[in-house]
Design goal:
The complex is a heterodimer of chains A (465) and B (229).
Chain A lengths: L3 H21 L5 E5 L13 E7 L7 E6 L9 E6 L7 E6 L12 E5 L5 E9 L2 E8 L9 E2 L11 E2 L11 E7 L6 E7 L7 E4 L7 E9 L5 E8 L9 E11 L14 E2 L6 E4 L1 E4 L8 E3 L4 E5 L6 E8 L5 E8 L7 E4 L7 E8 L5 E9 L6 E9 L7 E8 L18 E5 L2 E9 L8 E9 L6 H5 L4
Chain B lengths: L2 H16 L12 H13 L9 H5 L2 H6 L4 E4 L4 E3 L6 H14 L9 H6 L1 H5 L6 E7 L4 E7 L12 H8 L4 E7 L8 E8 L4 E6 L10 E5 H8 L4
Antiparallel strand pairs in B: 1-2, 1-8, 2-4, 3-4, 5-6, 6-7, 7-8
Classes of the chains: A mainly beta (465), B alpha+beta (229).
Amino acid sequence: MIPASVRIHRCFVAASLLFSLGVSSGCGGRFMKDIATDALDPSNLADTEPSIAVSPHNHAEIAIVTFSENWTPSKGAPVWKSTDHGQTWNKIFQIVQPAPGHFGPGDQKIDFDANGEIYVAELASTAGGISDFVYRQAGPANGPLTPGASYGNDQPHLSVDRHGSSPLKGNLYSPWLDFSQPLERSTVAWSSNQGIAMNSVGAGDNSSFRNRTTRSAIARDGKVYIIYKTREGTAGAPPDFENAHFHVNRSDDGGHTWTGLGAAGISVHGATQVQTYFTNTFGNIAKGKVARARSSDAWIAVDPENGDVFAAYVRRDASGFAQIYVARSTDQGATWTAARATDGTHNSAYPEIAVTKRGVVGVLFVDYDDAGSVTLFRHHFARSFDHGSSWGDDILQTMNPGPLANASSGFLWGDYEGLTAQKNTFYGVFTGESSGRSVLQLDPIFFRQKSCRWYWIGCLLEDED
Amino acid sequence: MHKSIRTLCFLMVLSIAALPPWEGASAMPDPQTSGSSQLLKFLTDQNIWGPDAPQAFAYLDRWKSEGESFILIFPDRVVGASKFETPEQAKERAERMSQAMKRPAAKLSPELAAAFKAALAKKIPSLLMESASFLEDDSFRLIMKREGAEFLKQGLTMSAVSAAYGPPEKTSTEVVQARGDRRPAVLTISQYEGGKIKFVQSDLSPDPSVVDRVILDVSASAAVVLASH
């Protein structure tokens, strides 16, 4: 017979454990699915560099672009679409060739506007050069998309202002890297008419150093933020790394000027340089295939409710490993506080960051473990429920790309992957090892995860459409 | 027989047995000849080449004298494999090559001339040599071309090549990095004749099953298609 005092004590301990678990963990299971099937991907394409967007009108409508089929003069490149929260997927071949002789998709990024209409930024190449186009939906949702004006150059990204409170609602912004400058410059093209006319404005400070990795995010007041890095040489940096600053700047006038935080913006990690990746060999080349990580080291997001700005970046720190750091600004980018999101045990890169309506911060990233005979790459999804001060981390998938025939050493999953948030749910996509396919290969892997605290009753009860 | 003589005889028999077979008596074709004739078969195959290929082949000796070990033959142009860092370097080399092309083109071998008799009978304008940016890797290259020319057959598929010549000796992939971070070309390279001829598919092509370009070993190809070689 156990004495009553012991029973009470055990009960108290159990309750305490449950309470601690509830306080420290987020509620909501994760749904994960390989969106390709043998029928949808009969050529076993690599489906690299995925990007994701969720319709603000109906969160069941999700769109993804990856490097899948190329467009031809007679057939468009595909957008992967789901209308049931990602349970089932189809390929809609709607990204048409923008002009005769243009090959692509080169680079691409997808977004929705406030009306639930889709936009895609695309890089197209000809024998003579590169140009970018923003496609818009001018007809039915699954009809051919219409390309806008030609602009830009390398790695176009895309953010559409869909905030009801924004005076610039409907504007779109496409960061790209201007290689025509003596030192490459981060540049942002803006459009107030759905990409029909694009206006490119220099945004990065390239007075001393080359720029790279330009990403954008829009606050609910219509202010637009970019993060970019200045590449500051390799003095003192180990192989595969270079010295850099990650800067954030802001446009308060719809992208016409980029001086909201001064001419050069603000370094999110202060005055001291950091070391970040610039390599074609992320991984251990002696133990298998490797990946390119040259502009795979920064991302930016804005809290949709309170306007806090979050910047994720790569920094090789005292651990000796490249780590993911997240800096937070509560004053529109003027000052920043940074914390490490990773655990200091493995080289990490490819951060993408998003914030839910209740301020939960999510980071998708990749690290690798080369302790064994082959390099294992691991896709992680880390979340912070305290505005980036502390992080919990789940491994989404561990992959050895060696046996995957369509995994090309030097460009495994692409330069970046996809993460976004709508209401209380994160939606992500990464290029990982397939499941349920006849041939084991790289495929786009979709995941979503509602992220509430157990005591956020409103959050838990809120339907995700 | 004396034991030592018997041993000597035995050793002589062994030595004779170990000698390489007399060439004249060999039933096997000379590997060099065999390789050359197979390469010639590739180079005279009108299912592979467009009508303007022989005109380009006739300048293989100029590519060779300019130090190009390999050339890349696309449907609409011929590109040198040497990569130049600056446009000036490429321009200087292109001007030199252009001068060299003013001399009469080399005479084609009878086999090639016969294979492309109809195409060669037509009067066609000269090929132009220029330097230009090669978008795939942002290098500067020598480019030989003419408006409307077809050097490599449009729409040639790798499956057609395999059907005609058997599976490639070796297949490899190569990721071509450029200065920027746009999507890199992932090339699938199918090699024949010890690498003297390679068929390349690019994942950036509208149809990746189509042969995007053929890489030719300049010296080996010149040796079989030019009469003077």
